[in-house]
Design brief:
single chain; 472 residues
Length: 472
């Protein structure tokens, strides 16, 4: 086991955690697993989050200072944001193509879909929206008994988890068009550093601090730069130490997660997927296609020195960790290490590009939103036309950029996209049972996208750097 690569150890820990959870369900050990094993998984996530904020702060400042010329920073920032934007649009478009071909919402029993359509028309009538498709089941008197029955049912908006997110969406609607810019600037940087949710504020402060440091005379700036570089090395060493125990922590994390979902009845996990099988499969196919076909293809096109195998092998520890933690921010320290050491990207580039990607790049989340919105429309017998699907592309892309600081951003963004095409945002309650598992795969895609963009930008930067040195 000593000579086994870290990513294989993490995979083994992940699989053993799932096996343990299933066995503990059959033998009635779930309470023991939740009380004595699951806490170690949460400790692991806390350790990674503990390092994430100071590592982002010092690595961005160090990266900007390392660039030397503010002109390089502007060029690097513009290319980074443009490439993240292109990959997000690509992800949403692939998701829409897949969901329109597979039609996962059509596989539901027709009678249930008719009931869903009636429920949708009742909601649209209540909200004052015209119903899609010019179809009106409420207008047909023969459906009166069905309409009365559906009208009595408890809506998803009365679910506590859904109601909480509905309030977040309402708050978003009330905010102005430049609210996301306002939210980027912290009024107190120490308060911003108290919670990973404020990562965008920390990135803004780090960029501002780094730029200011470039204009300070060398005599005064050198001691500050030495301290920053020293602290960055310390935090990277902390990542190394934590990762030595990662296989055990991942085992605990997965054992606790599956036990909490299933309790003493492991069949519950499979039941969750049963009603949403085609939706889950469509999302998984899209996400895996993005992670293992699109990104490596982009990499191969721009970065000739890396093969498909070496790229995936290089970032596999970060992918495994992303799957286990469902958090790009918690995985960031490991992503930085993988990109710099395995993919050989200049730390000046990776320390700037990756923290921004962990905050604003949500390719996996954006793809899932596109699939989910069309699936939920199909589930309610609604056909979205081309214009409405283009609205999904635009809204999902803009939402992924503007909602980086929102807790539970994926579901809140989905509700915003549903509202943009005149659908009920409370429908997220339908897909909530499988959201946690799909979120794990979405995070893998987000992290892989960050690594791809960072490596491509790094290749551009090293090429330009070599040209400048030759011309001197």
């Amino acid at each position: 086991m000593k000579n086994l690569a870290l990513h294989w150890k993490i995979i083994i820990g992940l699989l053993l955690g799932i096996v343990w959870a299933v066995l503990s369900g059959f033998f009635g050990w779930s309470e023991f697993t939740i009380n004595w094993i699951a806490p170690w998984g949460r400790i692991f996530i806390n350790l990674l989050k503990l390092i994430a904020i100071p590592l982002v702060l010092f690595s961005i400042i160090g990266g900007i200072v390392g660039l030397g010329d503010p002109k390089h920073l502007g060029k690097l920032g513009l290319r980074t944001l443009m490439l993240y934007l292109v990959t997000t649009i690509l992800a949403v478009s692939i998701g829409l193509v897949l969901v329109n071909i597979a039609k996962p919402g059509v596989w539901l029993d027709k009678e249930v879909r008719i009931e869903n359509r009636v429920a949708y028309e009742l909601w649209a009538q209540q909200e004052g929206h015209p119903a899609h498709d010019n179809t009106c089941l409420l207008c047909d008197e023969s459906n009166q008994s069905l309409i009365d029955e559906v009208a009595k049912r408890r809506g998803y908006d009365q679910d506590e988890a859904v109601a909480k997110r509905l309030k977040q969406v309402e708050d978003q609607k009330e905010s102005g068009p430049l609210q996301f810019l306002e939210d980027m600037v912290p009024e107190n940087v120490f308060w911003a550093m108290s919670d990973n949710v404020h990562m965008l504020k920390i990135i803004f402060f780090a960029i501002f601090f780094g730029i200011a440091l470039l204009f300070v005379p060398n005599k005064q700036s050198k001691p500050v730069i030495d301290v920053i570089n020293g602290l960055t090395e310390v935090f990277l060493k902390m990542v190394d130490l934590i990762m030595k125990a990662a296989p055990f922590f991942v085992f605990a994390l997965l054992a606790g997660l599956v036990s909490e979902m299933a309790g003493d009845d492991p069949v519950k996990v499979f039941e969750m997927f049963k009603g949403l099988t085609w939706y889950s499969l469509t999302v998984l196919v899209g996400l895996l296609f993005m992670a293992f076909v699109i990104y490596p293809s982009i990499m191969k096109f721009f970065v000739k020195r890396l093969s498909y195998k070496s790229f995936l092998k290089g970032i596999s520890p970060a992918q495994m960790l992303a799957f286990s933690t469902s958090s790009s921010a918690a995985t960031l320290p490991v992503t930085l290490e993988c990109v710099e050491e395995n993919l050989k990207v200049d730390p000046k580039v990776s320390s700037f590009v990756l923290p921004i990607g962990a905050t604003v790049n949500m390719d996996g989340t954006s793809m899932y939103q596109a699939i989910a919105v069309v699936f939920l429309a199909q589930w309610h017998m609604i056909d979205l036309d081309l214009g409405q699907q283009l609205t999904i592309v635009l809204t999902a892309t803009l939402a992924s950029i503007g909602s980086a600081a929102i807790p539970s951003a994926g579901l809140v963004m989905l509700m915003i996209v549903l509202s943009s095409v005149g659908l009920n945002p409370a429908w997220i309650g339908i897909i909530l049972p499988v959201d946690r598992i799909l979120d794990m795969v979405r995070t893998v895609v987000n992290v892989t996208g960050d690594a791809t963009v960072s490596t491509v930008i790094g290749e551009f930067y090293s090429g330009e750097d070599n040209i400048e040195q030759d011309s001197k």
